[in-house]
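Anyone able to model this chain together with iron/sulfur cluster?
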Amino acid sequence: MLLKKERLNDILTDMAKQARVYVPVSPDANDGGGVGKSGKAKMTRFELYSPGTAPNFDLVNTTMPPKDMLFPQTQKMYRYGFDTEGNAYIDIIHDSDEVVIFGMRSCDARSIECMDDVFLSMGYDDEFYKQRREKLATVAIGCASVAETCFCDSMGLDPNAAPGADVQLSPGVDGQSYVVVAQSEKGQALVASWQPYLEDSTAETTQVSCALKVNGDGLKDKLEQMFDHPIWEQLSKKCLTCGTCTYVCPTCHCFDISQENKMKDGERFRCWDSCMFSAYSEMAGNHNPRPTKMPRVRQRFMHKLCFFEDRYGKTLCVGCGRCVEKCPVALDITMLIDDIQAADLSKAEEVA
Ligand code: SF4
Ligand code: SF4
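re: yes, here you go
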């Protein structure tokens, strides 16, 4: 099936009557100019679509990933307290809206598979994640171009295909259309609802690959032998422990739980946390197993490239390049992978 780009707004407007639909938006579409007074580019992100919104499906990927539709930056979990008769109550806060993320890239589609592993597998279901996940449908658009920081195909992904998404749109070489393929039951239902706007034909599609490459061969095996390697001390020196890398990362999923009490009632909520902060690993009695930068930087990269694969069979880095782009001191995961591959293992033994 073929979807002409000129029909996209019809589809989005129809879907927005049934669901909350999020689309990638450039700041210049709704926020005058695209750059601040400093001349620096503003942040791009997924925003709620309504008629009049101008989506930008040409963005390679957004500054902020769409993970907060499933795992909000701050999420109320439940209210508790005493009712007027003095009885204790706990009310779980449910989110009941249907949501469609329309226009995500392969990297963000894979990141949802990683989040599903964390929140919905190994005999553990996170009910707050689950209720959002069940109501989510995803529409991926293959990349018509790549950024200089993209390296997803080195991490085993394909910028042209996102098998985990409910619908795949592949850009036609004419630049005017998408080939539409439903990839799940949810996807079939969505595509069926688009029928008035689709054409019963097909087209040749754009195929791209990333210019930035890393060598992931044997990386996990090597990292397993490098926990005590001096390279971590050297690599972590320039880290500011600002946490930017974890906030822009589509797969980082650490959170903290807190509460706000008001007289007899209160609310519990969770919010994003970062393994790059010293307080993240602080325990009772002021014990902190990661008190300095080195073990925190090591943890972040070991988790991405080694520990997650041990537990779930895939890396926790999808090669989206956001941390490469945004780290203020260029602690670049692609350069780190090169350094790991070049490292001398005998040094690890000296320290261990
Ligand atoms: S963004 Fe860079 S400087 Fe900031 S915590 Fe991450 S690695 Fe460190
Ligand atoms: S570690 Fe960096 S490149 Fe990898 S998924 Fe996270 S933000 Fe993207």
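The pocket of iron/sulfur cluster (ligand 1) is lined by residues 239-245, 276, 327-329, 331 (CB under 6 Å).
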